[in-house]
Amino acid sequence: MPELLPPALARRHLLAFDTALLPEHRADVLVIGAGIAGLTAAVLAARAGLHVALATKGRIGESATWLAQGGIAAAVGETDSVELHLADTLAAGAGLCDEDVVLAVVREAAAALDGLRRAGVHFDLTEAGGIDLALEGGHSLPRVLHTGDATGATIQDTLSAVVRQTAGVKLMEERFLVELLVAEGRAAGALVLDGAGSPEVLRADAVVLATGGGGQIYRVTTNPLVATGDGVAAAWRAGAHLADLEFVQFHPTALDSASSPKFLITEALRGQGAYLLDALGERFMLRVHPLAELAPRDIVSRAIERVMEETHRPNVWLDARRLGRELLETRFPTIYEKCAEAGFDLSVDLIPVAPAAHYMIGGVRVDLDGRTSIPGLYASGEVAASGLHGANRLASNSLLEGLVFSRRVVRALQDDGGAGSSSGRIVSTPEPRPRALRAVARLEELQYLMSRFVGVRRTAEGLADASEAVAAMSEVLHLSMASRPELELQNLVTVASLVTVAAIRRRESRGTHFREDFPQRDDECHRVHTVWTRNAEPFDVPVHGPAGAGSEPSAVTLLGTDDA
Questions:
Q1: Total count of domains within the chain
Q2: What is the pLDDT, as a whole number, of residue 34?
Q3: What is the pLDDT of residue 432?
Q4: Cβ of 423: how many Cβ atoms within 10 Å?
Q5: Exactly one of 186, 237, 297, 515 is catalytic; which is it?
Q6: What digits encode the pLDDT tens for the residues 140-176?
Q7: pLDDT tens across 353-373, in order?
Q8: Measured between alpha carbons, how far is 207 from 199 in angstroms, rounded to an integer?
Q9: Full domain range(s) for residue 337
Q10: Which residues of 269-291 are buried (b: 16+ CB within 10 A; e: fewer)?
Q11: What is the pLDDT of residues 27-76, one digit of tens each?
């Protein structure tokens, strides 16, 4: 076990179980998660002739995809190009993007979006009939396709309907991932809890992990309540390689209200011309970055926090008044309505906003085709660390990543073939420990620690305090528990421990990881991906150099009828 990690993180299983005594379901491919990554993988795998089980933690609409407002980035405009999209992504990633991964994703973006359109996603058009492209932070020109300000919900609803209509996909809702099963060194399925809390075994030749991130380790987050890091934690226990865990992106403009999760206000609104103002009514971003309000998210979030600290206020102000009621109601109807519910008129009032934890850049390390270090286990979307985002995700590249990587995963599934799911008995007998746990209270304590010490700005002293406190909380990992809130807490403690220790190890500032005690970027020592695995010391992997060869699109039938 690495020296700084709590010993409790060495535990392999959270529950005692015997697969021979549990109900069992079988499939060629088990997809876990039903956001854009999971839905895409399930549909394409079924259309490739594989029998698919699609397991999702809650109901099919409960995902970060559904909450995504801004849109999906792709170089489809007349003045745009793959090279420009590549350059913008690399610039936002602060030297930590793997260029071959970025190039593969931006090259395949147009074909992937064609598949979405043929599935029934209708992106907004201009009056002349062309695609209406929005401008967001870090992009050098308008590049973001959208459907109003509810792009994620449109994609989620469309793909969910496609899944329900696709023969070969068995949808299994309310299945909470407890453990990834590994037999003879290969992924063999998963142990889950059904809606009643009873354990089941889902056997498969291959497993696609698409469980999203772990934003609930923070007190203020835009992530849905189901985002408790279950996939990352389960992959850690299974022995998969994880990477880039110190990089957590905070969205600069979440509505400062009592809601949980926080309502995100897309930066497309700033791209349309809205300003950020301090308590004196001044546009403070003008003196911070040449792109002002449209600087990369890490820069805007840190600037907002500084202003909040200087003015002793819990927020700054978003000013969209100059855009006019008609434009705001038609282009941003969801935001307009949510602000009204909170007591603000977007066309008249200044809107209080503050940064909120938004996206985990790190996760399960994958190659260019979504393969993890465990044969038969693949990952796509926010749960994965693909090298696309580097140290700071470019706006609206997240939906694109899930879409493109799931296409590549299905091609890899066909290329790799199935080794046959193990039918052997798997028994876990962790030593039972007495327990007296108030999961809700411990969760609130964890979220407070992470928000205070491992947030937008970090220091050696604060990280040490967080590490000590989270290590003490990690004792919950020794307990044998069975309820979903308790298991979620164990997963969150695992993820929080990994994020904190990774942040301690990276003694520089880069992208979303800002150390006030090491404020400069250090390419000589830290232009690497730090890779972690259970019961082993972390190791550094150099960032991939110039773009190289990767798997090219094949004749897989995508979400449409004839696109490739």
A1: 1
A2: 95
A3: 62
A4: 11
A5: 297
A6: 999 999 998 889 999 999 999 999 999 999 999 999 9
A7: 999 999 999 999 999 999 999
A8: 18
A9: 253-357
A10: bbbbebbbbbeeeeebbeebeee
A11: 999 999 999 999 999 999 999 999 999 999 988 888 889 888 889 999 99
Query: Is the bond leading into 261 cis (omega within 30 degrees of zero)?
Result: yes
Dihedral pair phi/psi, residue 329, rounded to 5°: -70, -30
Tell me if 329 is assigned to some domain: yes
In a domain, 486, yes or no: no
State the pLDDT at residue 261: 82
Phi, psi angles (nearest 5°) of residue 416: -75, -35
Determine the number of helices (DSSP H) and then strands (DSSP E) in the chain: 15, 20
Q: Which of 506, 499, 483 is closest to 449 using CA atoms?
A: 499
CATH code of the domain containing 332? 3.90.700.10
**pTM of the shown model:** 0.92
Contact 67, 251 (CB under 8 A): no
Q: What is the pLDDT of residues 83-126, one digit of tens each?
A: 999 999 999 999 999 999 999 999 999 999 999 999 999 999 99
Rounded CA gap, 130 and 119, in Å? 19
Establish whether 297 is a catalytic residue.
yes
Angle, alpha carbons 33-35-41 (nearest 5°)? 70
**Which of 171, 175, 209 minimizes the C-alpha distance to 385?**
209
Task: Indicate if the pLDDT at residue 512 is higher than 60.
Answer: yes
Angle of helix 439-453 relative to helix 484-505, nearest 10 degrees, comes to 20
SS3 content of the chain, % helix, strand, coil (to 5): 35, 20, 45
The length of the chain in residues reads 564
Residue 309 lies in a domain: yes
Identify any residues that bridge with 186 across adjacent strands, giving them in sequence order.
183
Handedness of CA 133, 315, 67, 35 (dihedral sign): positive
Is a pLDDT exceeding 60 seen at residue 552? no
Q: Note whether residue 503 is domain-resident.
A: no
- CA distance linking residue 550 with residue 321, whole number of Å: 47
pLDDT of residue 554: 33
CA distances from 547 to 168, 201, 340, 400 (A): 36, 41, 47, 19
